[in-house]
Write the structure tokens for this entry.
Amino acid sequence: MSVNQTPRPDCSHPADEHAFLTLTMIRNIRLDIEYDGTAYCGWQRQENGRSIQQVLEEAIAVITKSPVALHGSGRTDAGVHALNQTANFQTTVTAHMVAFHRGLNSILPRDIVIKRATEVGPEFHARYSAKSKTYRYVVLNRDTPAALERHCCWFIPQPLALADMRACLPQITGRRDFASFRSAGSSNINPVRTVFQAELDVVDGGRIIFTFTADGFLRHMIRNLVGTIVAVGRKKLTAEDFPAIFAGCDRALAGPRAPAQGLFLVEVHY
Amino acid sequence: MSVNQTPRPDCSHPADEHAFLTLTMIRNIRLDIEYDGTAYCGWQRQENGRSIQQVLEEAIAVITKSPVALHGSGRTDAGVHALNQTANFQTTVTAHMVAFHRGLNSILPRDIVIKRATEVGPEFHARYSAKSKTYRYVVLNRDTPAALERHCCWFIPQPLALADMRACLPQITGRRDFASFRSAGSSNINPVRTVFQAELDVVDGGRIIFTFTADGFLRHMIRNLVGTIVAVGRKKLTAEDFPAIFAGCDRALAGPRAPAQGLFLVEVHY
């Protein structure tokens, strides 16, 4: 930990000096955050619209009484949710973590909740320390939309061929070039990623739950993958098309992008 | 079915006459409805506030082009949700059920969804034909509130003694006088009900799911039962207090009322 070495002019006896040193110690705070992304323009601060990062930075600043820069593990798009987004920031405030955690939740809007606030070593960085991430995508496949989960799933009334969709999954895992599944405008980034897990579970009431874990994801990669698998389920593409889609490295070969509201950041692994 | 016998003055040949008779046949339509109760003052029409019944009656009237009276299986309070509320209404409109169902969903707000619309016999009445109902109540028992399910559970951060709570359940099932678990102001109704099912399941993430099935429920009965069971879980009462609470027939003996937003009407059985 780094310590501000400038002596305080009116620091007259050892107890005061100790308090001063404690106050100016830089602490690295990790936050684990759940949010409902419905009302926000996404994680990242933007000129137009209220972002989750902005709301959090403003709330933290109320408690720490100075501006902070909050580093998220990565962006989530407008309407995407998080069960556990991870972020960190540095502060010199000495507040006890339990009090800080409670205070922060008490001033945040109810659609953003700090699940844990912990002091971590100075080497921890929510983005650069992340080893992998797990996302979930929820499709609601039944005749009518959901009233209760309307902001938390992609409603698809047409029948879906589940066996065909499942046949896509082994073709996604492993180290691959995902250029065909990234959004236009992100072409300057290395498109090779390793997907450790690509699963599909069917649960009660017509819910199809996708789970993806990878060492990283390109912009819109999961939504483009889900949109392509659903296109296979709707017989617009086949699982046998996947090798050619990967080989072509062309976004136009894959299926359409699935909507944001079905996507959840489940966990960032360190 | 009753038929309007008044002849149409300009009805000149048999085909027209047949069309006219079809138009004036009274049809009994059953609706199965999912709703998010968060934004409403409850099921029942009220002077102050927007009710689910009112929104549905107005939407149906847009399609049938005449006012309708919608009969629900029973009231739900402000903030209470339904996975399947049942209602029925009578109409002379001849619209095909599939077209009527789609049209109605297309004009309803997204927090109210018609899951099924079916023509039923004239004897069916959503309230009087109901044999039993199943409700669910969701408690979120963890350190921090939920961002995503904030309108759909009762958040309780304190530890709960689950074994003690489970010991209450067999004392609820059977034919009993539930006067101690009904709200003040409903004392003119016979308080004897038969509870067929009173269960508690613990699922991932600290969710405690109660399921109750009975031939009927008194006003606030489930919320008062859940509040009392939670009081046992918090060691304010014990499971051994239940016989005396029942025997006393006094609302003051039971625990506090659980909040509305954890309650879901799951199914009405006919």
User: Anything to note?
Assistant: Chain B is about 25% helix and 25% strand.
